[in-house]
Design brief:
Helix 13 crosses helix 18 (498-510). The radius of gyration is 27 Å and the shape is globular. It has helices spanning 8-18, 33-40, 53-67, 79-94, 120-124, 140-152, 187-191, 211-219, 253-258, 271-274, 310-318, 327-339, 350-360, 403-414, 426-432, 436-442, 457-465, 498-510; strands at 4-6, 23-27, 46-49, 71-75, 98-104, 130-133, 159-164, 171-173, 179-181, 195-199, 222-225, 240-243, 261-265, 287-291, 303-307, 366-369, 391-393, 420-425, 446-452, 488-492, 515-520. The relative contact order is 0.08. By secondary structure, the chain is of the alpha/beta class. The strands form 4 sheets. It has a 7-stranded parallel sheet. Helix 6 links the parallel strand 6 and strand 7. Helix content is 32%, strand content 18%.
Length: 544
């Protein structure tokens, strides 16, 4: 089979074949492209052609209940979908793993009173475990793989997948071989000679006994984490190399390009975590996924998947045969860590602030972060390390502006005896500032490290880098932060003033006084630069 097929239905038939879903029930749309694809296929499924969509869903439900496997049904759009709804209701109440594949309106015609136009996802969502419309050809195969997975795993039940008309003649990629649900130690993990561990947010509160670090030592593996996975592992461990994807240090590129197995622990493999991964990962290089539920698996990369509690599962792996020693790879991992060094300079810069935080604030500190232009310095290891006892809370992939500033208060309520710091830009802080009075009233001693560049630095940088630069609108200005009664406020303009200001904030926040340390920073002190150094040292800069 080639790595691309022409048309959505040949792709659907190939994925169903890979998953041994050999029988279809339904009454397809009047374009009949499904029937054409079946007649042209080398190993087509059996299509039970029905005369009523409701009966097709009833038949599919009976088949799924008898086999225990995912069973597919196909219908057209509009009234065909509403006719099928009664069958979905029965499948839902019967916990039958039925995958309903429906036609859909071309996006160019939505809102134009198109033939049989209906918001089918909204209509069927209450009757399914998952309802999804595929908009792009390259998402069809991963979406169908996920549909088959969600339907069968956990409490079984029906799912709905909509394949709009514009995909019927599109070129559809067939990358990867699909997911393989397994138990025990996955074979690629035992066979790996150059493994990488990727630790996601699902490992938070699951690594008390350091099973991740023990697994890395046993395998000789490199440890990376996602942004939400920070604090789950000891970032001072000699195998830890920072964040993956968008936030990966260039010095780690060789490890990613030569690894023969990536083990994802509690990660959904979101876009920022997998950005710029080498093409073979998830195809020739398997990705082993361990997650609490099948719904959390990423379906656009191939490899074994294990559903279960991460800590207990890894403990089980450690008790078994994990293959031979990988000393040469482990040496490369630790040598790569030695290449990662923070940038230093004589002027006040954000990495200097992060270095002082690590020196002055106790090790059990929790850093709550935003995801703006300059507070992202903390994402780029080794500018900041959580160490063995520190914690980290970051926004989700939605990166809601102001989340970190407000979430820090909730973190302090949950951890009243630990230092809690929020690293935020002044734009995000301004959205939160009215609730500083809440912290005063509740005696929540959070220390806000506010990077003052005059407002929305991210947008200003985009405007400045635009070709030609956008000069008629300004997103930054020289405005000091407003003072709030009951909040200790310090202004830092020199590097020498950082440590005293932090020490005073540690003392006051322990007594329940909120603190704001306003740090003046230049707009070009950014971790994300056009030249692509992404928070790491340039060759001609001074290194410690």
């Amino acid at each position: 089979m080639s790595d691309q097929v022409r048309g959505a239905w040949p792709a659907v038939l190939e994925v169903l074949r890979q998953h041994d879903a050999g029988t279809l029930f339904g009454l397809p749309g009047d374009d009949l492209k499904l029937l054409d694809a079946i007649e042209r296929a080398d190993d087509p499924p059996r299509l039970v052609l029905c005369r009523d969509q409701r009966n097709a869903l009833f038949m599919a439900t009976g088949h799924a209940l008898q086999t225990g496997a995912a069973t597919a049904a196909v219908v057209g759009k509009g009234p065909a979908v509403t006719n099928a709804a009664t069958g979905l209701l029965e499948a839902q109440c019967s916990h039958a793993p039925v995958v309903l594949i429906g036609a859909g309106t071309d996006p160019h015609h939505i809102g134009a009173r198109a033939f049989q136009e209906l918001d089918q996802v909204s209509a069927l969502a209450p009757l399914t475990k998952w309802a999804h419309r595929v908009e792009h050809a390259d998402r069809l195969v991963p979406a169908l793989r996920r549909a088959l997975l969600v339907a069968t795993q956990g409490a079984p039940g029906p799912v709905y997948l909509e394949v709009p008309d514009h995909l019927l003649d599109a070129d559809v990629p067939l990358r990867g071989r699909g997911l393989e649900l397994t138990t025990g130690i996955p074979r690629p993990l035992r066979a790996a000679e150059r493994p990488i561990l990727l630790v996601g947010g699902g490992m938070r509160h699951r690594n008390a006994d350091r099973v991740v670090e023990r697994l890395a030592e046993r395998l000789g593996a490199a440890i990376f984490c996602t942004a939400s996975g920070r604090g789950a592992v000891d970032e001072d461990h000699p195998h830890f190399l920072g964040l993956s994807g968008l936030y990966a240090a260039p010095a780690t590129a060789q490890l990613w390009s030569t690894s023969d197995c990536v083990v994802s622990l509690g990660s959904r493999l979101e876009e920022t975590a997998t950005l710029d991964w080498p093409e073979p990962i998830g195809d020739a290089v398997p990705v082993v996924q361990l997650n609490i539920a099948a719904e959390e698996f990423a379906t656009d990369r191939s490899g074994p998947c294990v559903a279960g509690d991460a800590a207990a599962t890894v403990e089980g792996w450690l008790a078994g045969d994990l293959g031979g020693r990988r000393g040469e790879w482990a040496d490369l991992v630790t040598a790569t860590r030695q290449e990662l060094r923070p940038r230093v300079s004589g002027e006040l810069r954000i990495p200097d602030l992060l270095a002082e935080v690590q020196q002055v604030v106790p090790q059990d500190r929790i850093l709550v972060q935003e995801n703006g232009l300059q507070d992202m310095w903390s994402y780029f290891f080794p500018n900041y390390s959580c160490g063995p006892r520190g914690g980290s809370v970051v926004p989700s992939e939605q990166t809601s502006l102001g989340f970190g500033a407000a979430a820090a208060a909730g973190v302090k309520v949950a951890a009243p005896h630990r230092p809690v710091l929020a690293l935020v830009g002044d734009g995000a802080f301004a959205l939160f500032a009215a609730d500083l009075r809440t912290l005063v009233r509740e005696r929540l001693g959070v220390c806000y490290l506010v990077l003052r560049n005059g407002g929305y630095g991210w947008l200003q940088q985009q405007a400045d880098q635009h070709e030609p630069p956008i000069t008629g609108f300004a997103f930054t200005g020289d405005e000091p932060l407003a003072r709030t009664p009951g909040v200790h406020h310090a202004l830092v303009e020199r590097r020498a003033d950082l440590a005293p200001a932090l020490a005073e904030a540690v003392r006051l926040t322990a007594e329940g006084t909120p603190c704001v340390i306003e740090v003046l920073v230049a707009l070009d002190d950014s971790a994300l630069r056009p030249e692509g150094d992404f928070g790491t040292a340039k060759p001609d800069e001074e290194l410690p």
